[in-house]
Design a protein that fits this description.
5-stranded parallel sheet, alpha/beta, 6 helices, single chain
Length: 178
């Protein structure tokens, strides 16, 4: 079963693409929803607790933990979903892209101007509304794209209409349209 990871910087359209794929009948998981991301122990990689928006931790705790996708959950998802494609949409510091777990990785690229515009005008996500968060999103934009390209991700311009992005994803992953 193909496990496809769709990732990219803030405001690159990951959730929008995920919703469109779900509407088309594909099994999708948006890592911003449903308690999928966990705080992981930096040394063991094991989940500590589900990520909760607005949760605050001190520097000592943050130096020992990273936000991520539990590898065991991804492995179980892949094993249990024989015969169908599954899309994981999101981004996390620990996402196991270096393990060969994903059959394909797709990075949605976005230019700085579009990122800023999308963050300022979106109504379904508050991340980046805080000026400090927006500065970080702008700063990490290119390094996020480069990080995924270094592990062999296919790059798709997120300025394209969502239907064209989804069509490219399905073509790249050789998944037939439902």
């Amino acid at each position: 079963m193909p496990l496809i990871y769709i990732t990219g910087p803030t405001a690159s359209g990951k959730s929008t693409v995920c919703n469109k794929l779900r509407e088309l009948g594909y099994e999708t998981y948006d890592t911003d929803k449903g308690g999928i991301r966990y705080w992981l122990n930096e040394k063991t990689g094991e989940p500590i607790k589900a990520f909760k928006k607005g949760e605050i931790h001190d520097k000592f705790w943050m130096n020992q933990h990273r936000l991520g996708l539990p590898k065991s959950w991804l492995e179980k998802l892949k094993a249990d979903s024989a015969g169908k494609v599954v899309f994981i949409c999101g981004t996390s510091p620990i996402d196991h892209t270096d393990t060969g777990l994903y059959d394909k990785i797709i990075v949605l690229s976005i230019d700085e101007e579009t990122l800023i515009s999308r963050v300022k005008t979106r109504t379904d996500n508050n991340y980046g509304k805080n000026p400090r968060q927006l500065d970080k999103a702008v700063k990490w934009r290119q390094s996020t794209i480069d990080r995924y390209k270094q592990v062999g991700a296919y790059e798709i311009d997120s300025n394209l209409p969502v239907d064209k992005i989804v069509s490219k994803i399905l073509s790249l992953t050789k998944v037939p349209e439902i």
